[in-house]
Amino acid sequence: MCRTTNTPVVRRLAAAAVALGSCLALAGPAGSADAAPADPVPTVFFGDSYTANYGIAPWNQDGDRTLCFQAKENYPTVATRRLADKGITLDVQSDVSCGGALIHHFWNEQELLPGTGLKVPPQQDALKADTQLAVGSMGGNTLGFTRILKQCSAKLRSPEHALLPGQPVDGDEPAAKCREFFASGDGKQWLDDQFERVGWDLEEMLERIQYFSPDAKPVLVGYPRLVPEDTNKCLTPAPGQPELPLADIPQDALPFLDQIQKRLDDTMKKAVADAGADFVDLYAHTGSNTACDGVNRGIGGLLENSRIQIGDDQRLPWYAHPNEKGRDIQAERVTDKVEQALNR
């Protein structure tokens, strides 16, 4: 008997499959292997700028995908090497991770820079019937985390930071009062609506992975922690840096940002549990590698220069993305989770 679903798009796909005389299981079959596969594992990496590892150079400058800012040494690449060292070979069919991707860009094309006409296809197009592993990070952009950051930072609202997508949720509200804005009224309602959208879209995405690649093990990768428990750490610039790691975001808003990250983490965990997929909990393992942890930071400061250079002398800010240390933490945790998933 086919698994049924309440998702309209997937119901239509299932109906079409039945009409063709097939019954395509929408949930991956339970694994029975006792050891890692000896043959290469057909794999697709998907996701947003945290999978692409925006900010780390060099990056792939391949035609229309240049503005995805996908690092050549992103965590999928590093994790693939680490798995090979453990005797697990991934046959990477595609890495379609792209900066700025929302969850719905898994099934809709993505416009890379509004007004340019540059687009990339839906990420689900990379899935094949024989794909056995699908790994990536999605959710932060659908939540609107950059809009939340801009609501809390006057500096990020300036035109020079137009590369960071989105506008503040309410530009008439001063950045200094962002905590109060999100605590009640329209701000709270907006945030609640965003989290509901993230949950629905993650459910849709995970069902699509299991529809188009019924033998695939989906692995959703969470986000590293941005704000430390001790927010006093955020009042001192990192060594050699002129700006505070979280720029001009008020200190009383920092615990609120951390709560949002934790809520996003919990939302992703629920979607994964409901789908029977796997989750890489980076938030729980990066509390001492936040943007405010100085030499130990795994996150580049909001306005700290990244490794991406445009022209002869301009470098783009990290905008709170993993630096090389953070990338290596991502790769380590993904390696461990993929090994566990494939060994089941």
Automatic annotation (TrEMBL):
SGNH hydrolase-type esterase domain mapped to chain residues: 45-327
Signal peptide residue numbers: 1-27
Pfam families, sorted: Lipase_GDSL_2
Keywords from the UniProt entry: Signal
Keyword Signal (UniProt): yes
Name of the protein described by the UniProt record: SGNH hydrolase-type esterase domain-containing protein
